[in-house]
Amino acid sequence: MAIYSIADLEILTGIKAHTIRIWEKRFNFVQPKRTATNIRFYDDQDLKKISRIALLHNKGYRISNICNLKNNELEDLVAQNAEVSLINADSLDALTLNILQLDEVKFIHLLNKQIEIRGFDFAFTEFILPLLDKLNEMWLSGSIRKAHEEFALQIIKRKIIQQINIQEHIIKDNPNRFLLLMPQNENQQLNRLYIEYMLSKNKMSGLYISSDADMRDVVEAIDIFKANHIITFVNEQASLHYADELISRVELLGDKVELSFLGYLASTIFEKHPHINEIKNYSCLIQFLKRLNNSI
């Protein structure tokens, strides 16, 4: 069983700790447990209840009317109010609640609803990315567990793969051909899948080279695949050495291949090698691909 402090609840639900204490006294809606040393804590059931109440309170329900509802009554109200037609804080709260409950059916339903309403591209940049940012903050603060993070990531990856599969029939006649390289110790499969989706959407061919490939494999892949672009993922310090070696090997090929780096350390590589492309975020990726299309 996971346990949470009142500070954790503030991060997870958006309700100030002071407000939670007031609601406890006035409405008796949750009763914190105490450790042997008399330290207050909350469990999963408390978190779920407070999350539901927070979502409904943000929708305009009076706290006095919802605090003493039974769990099934709260759940029914949340379900009725989670069918939002626009992407907003309420839908993010609803998805976060589904993640905390590891409720795959409801999480996928809400995700599909947003994709259906606004399209995958909009849903990804304006809905999924803010959700991932929120999960990252919760993970760093220790407010969620690895199981919650993996639950969300695996479903989102499946959604991107579905979009890639939808575009299998598209003829990739764009002359820009990409190798996607993943250095060892990097774990950016979601980023890699999204870039594969964007390349496919722009009729560009992409070939993923896994982290167990050495530089000889990379050079051979450039020749065999006729790649004229490489995108490499760099979030880990160990990837800086890989980047230096890759740049040195590619420079021997002349102007044949354009190098781009994506990740937290891309700016560090750009400072040392200003001729490479620094892709700071997804918006920069979209602009980069647009520039390539315009140059054809």
Helix and strand arrangement:
Elements lengths: L2 E2 L1 H8 L3 H11 L5 E2 L5 E4 H15 L4 H4 L4 H11 L7 H12 L3 H15 L1 H21 L5 H21 L10 E5 L7 H13 L3 E5 L5 H11 L3 E5 L5 H13 L6 E5 L3 H7 L4 E3 L2 H13 L2
Parallel strand pairs: 4-5, 4-6, 6-7, 7-8
Antiparallel strand pairs: 1-3, 2-3
Helix pairs in contact: 3-5, 3-6, 6-7, 7-8, 8-9, 9-10
Written description of the protein model:
By secondary structure, the chain is an alpha/beta fold. The protein folds into 2 domains: 46-165, Methionine synthase domain (Methyltransferase, Methionine Synthase (B12-binding Domains), Chain A, domain 1); 177-294, Cobalamin-binding domain (Rossmann fold). The protein is 59% helix and 10% strand. The chain is built from 14 helices and 8 strands. The strands form 2 sheets. It has a 5-stranded parallel sheet with strand order 5-4-6-7-8, with helices on both faces. Helix 13 links the parallel strand 7 and strand 8 (277-279). Helix 3 (44-58) runs antiparallel to helix 6, helix 6 (89-100) packs antiparallel against helix 7 (104-118) and helix 9 packs parallel to helix 10. It is elongated. The termini are far apart. The mean pLDDT is 86.
Strand content: 5-15%
CATH fold node name of the largest domain: Methyltransferase, Methionine Synthase (B12-binding Domains), Chain A, domain 1
Strands across the major sheet, in which order?
Answer: 5-4-6-7-8
Number of DSSP strand runs: 8
Q: Helix tally?
A: 14
Q: State the distance separating the first and last CA atoms.
A: 57 Å
Query: What is the CATH homologous superfamily assignment of the largest domain?
Result: Methionine synthase domain
CATH class of the largest domain: Mainly Alpha
In total, how many domains does the architecture comprise?
A: 2
| Known CATH architecture of the largest domain | Orthogonal Bundle
Largest sheet: 5 strands, parallel
Whole-number mean pLDDT:
86
Unreliable stretches (pLDDT < 50, length at least 5) are none
Following the backbone from N to C, one meets helices and strands in this order, namely EHHEEHHHHHHHEHEHEHEHEH
Shape: elongated
Radius of gyration based on Cα positions: 23 Å
